[in-house]
Amino acid sequence: MALKNTREANYPEWYQNVIAAADMAENSVSPGCMVIKSWGYGMWEKIRDIFDEKFKETGHENCYFPMFIPLSFFQKEAEHVEGFAKEMAVVTHSRLGAEEGKLVPQSPLDEPLIVRPTSETIIADSFAKWIKSYRDLPVLVNQWANVVRWEMRPRLFLRTREFLWQEGHTAHATAAEAEAETKQMLEIYRDVAENALALPVIVGRKPEYDKFPGAVDTYCIEAMMQDGKALQAGTSHFLGQNFARSANISFINSEGKPEFAYTTSWGVSTRLIGGIIMTHADDEGMVVPPRIAPYQVVLVPVVKNEADREKISAYIEKVRALLKSATPFGEKIRIKIDNRNKSSVDKFWEWTRKGAPIICEIGIRDADGGNVMLRERLKLGTPEGKEIVALDELAAQIAGRLENIQREMFARAEKRLQSNLRTDIATHEEFNRYFANASKFLKEGDNNNVAFVRGKWSGDPNSDELLKALKITIRCIPFDQSGTTGECLLTGKPGATIDVIYARSY
């Protein structure tokens, strides 16, 4: 029962079909915005909880800052305002009035307010009030919030005019401390992406022309989607003293002298869910990594005779009680009993489309025989994907099965990334020919259909324009530089020393 469009036939339509079939989100009547439905939001809640625990373990505390930011705050940092100007939504009036039966804006504001596209400027204003001495440092805060950026080509989860995210902001006494913080948070992003989302990533630094507006350095994690395009899955910015100077975040250092603080910011968003879809979903629908599945095991009653319903229901409650002892990933298992008034076949396919990791179908023969029919979503359509398990073995097996599913999902995605990361292109001519002919869709282990090229770059200041002509980007400068010299793949210049990842991207 494949989706209407397969990945190979029409990847963009397939992506939208996965979201609709899994009932994760839908377009809102508010243009460019989305409604995140319970299954999609449940995934975000689990992602949020995992990150939040790690942030707090590293000393960060949650705060909340206003979503309305005075325009003048952005104008203090010229590079920052230029970088976000085209995406800003602006509030210019405080109320509406009626004129000739129509609502019209009234009471112009003395100063326009920007609806939060990011919070560096307004948080810097608070930091300037909180920080007076080196004894007040470091300040380590995070906020979970919504953001507005006026996207012109919205796509569910990937680019919408309003989306959810976390943004961390810190202030430090030295550049070394701030840079260490930036890299520490990037490592948390990598850890969660790979170990919770089963999303293998390449870690590195953005080129100078592609840094966050106002940053000294921007670090990132980049993931490969099944169509071969890259998705930026998280960024961490070392801001130096740029925002501190514009907002006057100054302190008296240990030598009694005034000094500007060094700040950082870092964030991930609901865009991660788009990345999870495009990494793990298949032509039957969504496949959710167990660590972030709202329900890890779904129990579906199979009632063919109403006289059996009570016995089946009692048996299912017994199954649930036994499963409560299972602790996959060291956590309580998340279980759903689907008692809706629908056929068991319809319910099975709904949960299959949603990507629930394990679906258990339980009928009268299971209740009488002390068994459970267990299906693993990742193995749908294979002989191993459907198995009868004795009830007294189920609890002992279930945690291990979920942990194995998580590992296998990462292994599959990691194999795809490594199999489709090309390192043998050595000349500008080969490079241009490759990106002119590269397939739009990857096949597992097929090196003729590749998506990422790791090769040399000269750092040419005209790189951005050359990349646009090829419709590709430099995703990052990986931390694991080779230290070798070669021909710049982008310009053809000899003596290039920088290794970069070239790819098309979302």
Residue-averaged pLDDT, rounded?
A: 94
- Strand numbers in spatial order across the main sheet: 3-7-8-14-11-10-9-22-23-21-20
Alpha carbon gyration radius: 26 Å
Sheet with the most strands?
11 strands, mixed
Strand content: 25-35%
Oligomer: single chain
Shape: globular
The helix fraction, in percent, is: 25-40%
- Low-confidence stretches are none
Description:
- By secondary structure, the protein is α+β, with helices and mostly antiparallel strands.
- It has 14 helices and 23 strands.
- It has helices spanning 11-21, 38-57, 71-75, 78-84, 120-130, 175-195, 242-247, 271-280, 309-323, 344-354, 364-369, 391-419, 428-437, 463-470; strands spanning 25-27, 34-36, 61-62, 68-70, 89-99, 102-115, 139-148, 162-172, 202-205, 217-224, 230-240, 250-252, 258-260, 262-269, 297-301, 335-337, 358-362, 371-376, 386-390, 421-422, 452-457, 473-478, 498-503.
- The protein is globular and about 80 Å long.
- It starts with 10 loop residues before the first helix and ends with a strand.
How are the elements arranged and paired?
Blueprint (H helix, E strand, L loop, with lengths): L10 H11 L3 E3 L6 E3 L1 H20 L3 E2 L5 E3 H5 L2 H7 L4 E11 L2 E14 L4 H11 L8 E10 L13 E11 L2 H21 L6 E4 L11 E8 L5 E11 L1 H6 L2 E3 L5 E3 L1 E8 L1 H10 L16 E5 L7 H15 L11 E3 L6 H11 L3 E5 L1 H6 L1 E6 L9 E5 H29 L1 E2 L5 H10 L14 E6 L5 H8 L2 E6 L19 E6 L3
Parallel strand pairs: 3-7, 15-16, 15-17, 20-21
Antiparallel strand pairs: 1-2, 4-6, 5-6, 7-8, 8-14, 9-10, 9-22, 10-11, 11-14, 12-13, 17-18, 18-19, 21-23, 22-23
